[in-house]
Write a structure and sequence with these properties.
Blueprint (H helix, E strand, L loop, with lengths): L4 E2 L8 E5 L3 E5 L2 E6 L2 E5 L6 E5 L8 E10 L3 E10 L2 E9 L13 E4 L6 E4 L2 E2 L1 E2 L8 E2 L3 E2 L12
Parallel strand pairs: 1-15
Antiparallel strand pairs: 2-5, 3-4, 3-11, 5-6, 6-10, 7-8, 8-9, 9-10, 11-12, 13-14
């Protein structure tokens, strides 16, 4: 297991780092992602967000969805529905097609909400979704909080 990390110690602005840990995503009982070529975004008070190459998603697992959002660090995001095993997880994933220069490496990568799929795994650890449903961080046993997203943490 990697060394323990504390989300309160992550930087602001966030840091981008590569990871070769195995990331798997299950939807509708099917594996829709299995990759060791991901990026992690580490931001103060947040568990890491994992950015997975779009090419690592099973064929047909990503469908463009309505809407967009803006991140002061990464730029404009677009959204995707995830499809797998007959299930559709609406607006469960996002990407930054033209990220800011500091996050250029995540162009062509997709992040997703762990709570909107059957399960996400990092190596042999099942991921817990970041509390609150707004942020997309993944909690694993090697990352400790407290985490932004739970009631009363919006102003952190």
């Amino acid at each position: 297991m990697p060394a323990r990390e504390r989300a309160p110690d992550y930087p602001r602005p966030p840091r981008l780092e590569p990871s070769t840990r195995r990331v798997r995503v299950i939807l509708g009982g099917e594996v829709i992602v299995d990759s060791r070529e991901c990026w992690r975004v580490l931001e103060t008070w947040h568990p890491p967000s994992w950015y997975i190459p779009a090419s690592a998603f099973a064929p047909g697992a990503l469908r463009p969805a309505q809407g967009s959002s803006f991140c002061e660090w990464k730029g404009s995001a677009r959204y995707f529905d995830l499809l797998g095993g007959g299930r559709v997880a609406e607006r469960a994933a996002w990407s930054y097609p033209d990220p800011t220069p500091a996050f250029a490496a995540i162009a062509g990568h997709v992040a997703l909400y762990a709570g909107r799929v059957d399960a996400c795994w990092v190596d042999e650890d099942r991921v817990e979704p970041q509390p609150g449903g707004f942020y997309g961080g993944w909690i694993t046993p090697d990352v400790e909080g407290p985490f932004k997203g739970a009631p009363g943490t919006r102003g952190w």
